[in-house]
TrEMBL record:
Catalysed reactions, semicolon-separated: Hydrolysis of terminal non-reducing alpha-L-rhamnose residues in alpha-L-rhamnosides
SUPFAM superfamilies reported for this sequence: Six-hairpin glycosidases
Organism: Aspergillus fumigatus (Neosartorya fumigata)
InterPro entries registered for this protein in UniProt: 6-hairpin_glycosidase_sf, 6hp_glycosidase-like_sf, Alpha_rhamnosid, Bac_rhamnosid6H, Bac_rhamnosid_C, Bac_rhamnosid_N, Ig-like_fold, Rhamnosid_concanavalin
Positions of the Alpha-L-rhamnosidase concanavalin-like domain: 320-421
Chain ranges of the Alpha-L-rhamnosidase C-terminal domain: 779-857
Protein name: alpha-L-rhamnosidase
Length: 896
């Protein structure tokens, strides 16, 4: 029997309070194994605060992002919503569990009486370092009544943690997160009834540190980017059961003081002196009130908060050649360490220095550049205490511990690793018979987790940690399968539009933009700027949320209009471009010096994003002349690209893996003969020139496998994927990597760190190959936006004997598993597919051209299996195409 498994509003977690939408769209997913079940109608019931019930029944098969069927919510209004559905065969589900929907403060005047409060004295101890402060306020609730509903609405200029009567409020970390503060500052909503005492004095304390607002950021070491003072905005609203409302906001009645946190920087770490804890002698000062202008910028969050998601044990305690004590957690991750208990004489100073790798047995800190990544605890000599830093985070596997009290030697039980990231719902899983590929996939997942701390960053450890647009653009297809990123990336894309508008249509390299006049920061850059088109489309494909396209359509057009063009419509060839960034042939200190011509890459992506915006225009039913304009642009740009870069036979002027991969994947070759020739040429480059080693960077890596598979050469890519020599995907795995590296050779075969100034061991971009693992090895991909129709078309290869994948779509769980079974000299392929209710699946079995369309339920097939050539042989020099590949009379051009 079909049942409603889950109900949620917009892209929020279930039962999120304080949402910013007054007409939140509702979605529900299904569970059950009924065959060919489809929804015919749904009923939504809302229970209001006053007990009233509203109900609407609608004949529709839609179960994803259905329009809000009731009157708009007002600020702070709370309703409980439940859903039931009717479907084929006269079936009817039970009511779902109720979903709590509570609006936040939807209008600026809801904050009336609240002011920004700041310390009345400067807190900047040295340039770029603000000492954290504690803001305090007391409030008394009326006697004889209990709190019926109590909420804390709060945000900060900086990052905060709130306590009431000594109890921590909520489990969010590093709130309010990082947005383009000049336009958008998120506030959070907390339920606080359990912490309040009726008829007694209640005390609220809020620790605030510099965070992204005024702390030192990135490699330019800029600070005070959004303001020069830490600040707080908060509103407490308590509804008593006798109807009384107690309202307390930030105003001149609050006090502030310094506590035991001496320093708290995102890059450098925390210094905590327990001897300076709050006491009767602590000096509390009156706050000063700042500008009220920030109230108009307050917005409810779109995505999930940053939380602790896991704890990791210490795997080993090492002693370095220099005698240092080093903790090994066995996994590179993002967060910090927590001490279960520590004690010692007053003034004992313990230092924790973090690093991703070891070099010559010592922690490798050179890749961190100017980031200290150092947490310091000074003990007060009192009873043993647990301790962990806050208001910072590090990317690390190893921790060098200095100063641990000798009276109680450090053990693995004393310390635990705290893993943090934006708490997104895991949606995609993949496994296969090859343990190294499974480890590679896990490395990709860990890199994604570590680089989604509020925004999608490039790296989580060194003095950078920025929202580079190119990285997430190339990784979008992979990450949108692995996690539900719609809410978090929707928020980030709003900041992208803010920064794009400030740059006259150009999408800056990083979002939020903090680089000022730094080099190419606000110059037009293909792939990086193309995120304005490609990312909204990728999220639309996975979520089916057409509002994403509506919201970003103008941004897409602005970006295409901002691209400097030549007379042909292609990119104007003036200036340096990042293009195929981190091509493995590029010098260590010149990562954009790639083999593939930079403007070939720019122009290939220009054709691609123009094709996408034409699809967006059609999807949104844009004016006919607008749709016709973009369709015409596609044809003109393809002709211009062919004239500039493609010979009549299909040979590319730039003879590289990236060039052919982009040309094949973006349909830049005009005839079947050109496509065949280009595919053979790409295969030859891989088999003969590189001998299955990778020679692609940011631009080519996500598309290489897809292009080869499209050309019927998946076995060639299997050979590349399973290759273990550097550069390859499995080389880092064989070197013990537990995350994806920034460079193919971030660590050299002899164990030394790459000499380049830019070397991270946690960068997800080159992990975009996971998309090929999902779509080709497993064979699982969407056909219609939102996965209403999806395809199962596995392409087994290599030495794999089985693979399985699962995607938790907005409709339910899409699952498959295939296995190759031997029966004597013959091989049989067994395939099992699970299709969730209210969806359809297109199944194509290996060796068959037929497309089988099935509805919901579980099904199995078994067919004869005829593998491709394996192992694919490398071809020997000299480097000359076979006669049947090189058209008669065509001269082999020199290598580019």
């Amino acid at each position: 029997m079909v049942r409603i498994a889950r109900v949620w509003a917009e892209h929020h977690e279930p039962d999120t309070i304080g949402i910013g939408e007054d007409r939140p769209r509702i979605s529900w997913s299904f569970a059950g194994d009924d065959r060919n079940w489809e929804q015919i109608c749904y009923e939504v019931e809302a229970k209001h605060d006053d007990g009233r019930l509203s109900s609407v029944t609608i004949e529709s098969s839609q179960s994803r992002l259905v329009p809000w069927p009731f009157r708009p919510l007002s600020s702070r209004e709370r309703v409980e919503v439940r859903v039931r559905v009717a479907g084929t065969a006269n079936s009817r589900s039970d009511w779902s569990s109720p979903l709590v929907i509570e609006a936040g403060l939807l209008r600026s005047d809801d904050w009336s009486g609240c002011q920004l409060i700041e310390p009345s004295q400067p807190t900047e101890t040295v340039p770029g370092k603000h000492r954290p402060v504690i803001f305090r306020r007391r409030l008394v609730l009326p006697e004889g009544a209990a709190a019926k509903r109590a909420r804390l609405y709060i945000t900060a200029h900086g990052i905060y943690e709130a306590h009431i009567n000594g109890f921590r409020i909520g489990d969010q970390l590093l709130a309010p997160g990082w947005t383009s503060y000049q336009e958008r500052l998120a506030y959070q909503t907390y339920e606080i009834e359990p912490q309040l005492l009726a008829g007694q004095e209640n005390q609220i304390d809020v620790d605030v540190a510099e965070g992204w607002f005024c702390g030192s950021l990135a490699f330019l070491c800029k600070h005070n980017l959004y303001g020069s003072r830490i600040g707080l905005i908060a509103l407490i609203l308590v509804e008593m059961d006798d109807g009384t409302i107690v309202r307390t906001g930030t105003d001149a009645e609050w006090e502030w003081a310094h506590g035991p946190m001496v320093e708290a920087g995102l890059l450098d770490g925390v210094t905590y002196d327990a001897r300076e804890g709050l006491s009767a002698s602590t000096v509390w000062r009156t706050v000063q009130t700042g500008s009220d202008g920030c109230i108009t910028r307050l917005t409810a969050p779109d995505g999930p908060p940053i939380r602790q998601t896991q704890e990791l044990p210490v795997r080993a305690i090492l002693t370095s050649p220099s005698g240092k004590t080093i903790l090994d957690f066995g996994q590179n991750f993002v967060g910090w360490v927590r001490l279960r208990s520590v004690s010692g004489p007053a003034g004992t100073t313990i230092r924790f220095r973090h690093a991703e790798v070891l070099e010559d047995g010592e922690i490798g800190v050179r890749p961190l550049r100017s980031a200290k990544c150092l947490d310091t605890l000074i003990i007060d000599g009192a009873a043993p205490i647990p301790w962990e830093p806050k208001f910072t985070f590090h990317g690390f596997r190893y921790v060098e511990v200095d100063g641990w009290p000798a009276a109680s030697p450090l053990t693995v039980e004393d310390v635990v690793g705290v893993v943090i990231h934006s708490d997104m719902r895991r949606t995609g899983h993949f496994r296969c018979s090859d343990p190294l590929l499974n480890r590679l996939h896990e490395n990709i997942v860990w890199s994604m987790r570590g680089n989604f701390v509020g925004i999608p960053t490039d790296c989580p450890q060194r003095d950078e940690r920025l929202g580079w647009t190119g990285d997430i653009n190339m990784f979008a297809d992979t990450v949108s399968f692995l996690f539900d990123v719609s809410g978090m990336l929707s928020s980030w894309m709003k900041d992208m539009m803010v920064e794009q508008n400030a740059a006259n249509g150009v999408v800056p390299l990083v979002i939020p933009y903090i680089l000022g006049d730094f080099g190419p920061g606000k110059s037009a850059e293909a792939m990086w700027g193309d995120v304005a088109v490609m990312l909204p489309w990728a999220l639309y494909v996975v979520s089916g949320d057409i509002q994403l396209l509506q919201r970003h359509y103008q941004s897409m057009k602005d970006w295409l209009n901002a691209i400097p063009r030549s007379a042909s419509g292609l990119w104007k060839q003036a200036g340096h471009k990042l293009a195929d960034w981190l091509d493995p042939s590029a010098p260590a200190d010149d990562p954009s010096n790639a083999m593939t011509d930079m403007y070939l890459v720019c122009d290939a992506f220009l054709v691609h994003v123009t094709t996408l915006i034409a699809r967006v225009a059609a999807t949104l039913n844009a004016p006919p002349e607008e749709q016709a304009f973009y369709k015409g642009q596609i044809a003109d740009l393809r002709d211009a690209f062919a004239h500039e870069y493609i010979t009549p036979s299909g040979r590319l002027a730039c003879d590289t893996q990236t060039a052919y991969a982009l040309a094949l994947q973006f349909n830049l070759l005009s005839t079947p003969e050109q496509q065949t020739h280009a595919a053979e040429r790409l295969s030859l480059l891989i088999r003969q020139r590189s001998r299955f080693k990778i020679s692609t960077g940011f631009a080519g890596t996500p598309y290489l496998g897809h292009a080869l598979t499209k050309a019927g050469k998946s076995n060639v890519f299997y050979r590349m994927l399973l290759h273990r020599e550097c550069p390859s995907w499995l080389y880092p795995v064989t070197m013990g990597a537990t995350t994806v590296w920034e460079r193919w050779d971030s660590m050299l075969p002899d164990g030394r760190i790459n000499p380049g100034d830019m070397t991270s061991f946690n960068h997800y971009a080159l992990g975009a190959v996971a998309s090929w693992m999902h779509r080709t090895i497993a064979g699982l991909e969407p056909v219609e936006p939102g996965w209403r129709v999806f395809r199962v078309e596995p392409v087994p290869g290599g030495n794999l004997q089985w693979a399985e994948a699962e995607y938790r779509s907005v409709y339910g769980d899409c699952r498959l598993r295939w296995e190759i079974k031997r029966e004597g000299k013959q091989q049989r392929l067994w395939l099992e597919v699970v299709v969730p209710p209210n969806t359809k699946c297109q199944v194509r079995l290996p060796g068959s051209a037929d497309l089988i369309v099935v509805g919901s339920g579980q099904r199995t097939w078994e067919v004869d299996y005829h593998p491709q050539e394996w192992p694919v042989r490398a071809l020997q020099p000299p480097f000359r195409p076979p006669d049947d590949i090189l058209p008669k009379g065509e001269v082999v051009p020199h290598e580019w």
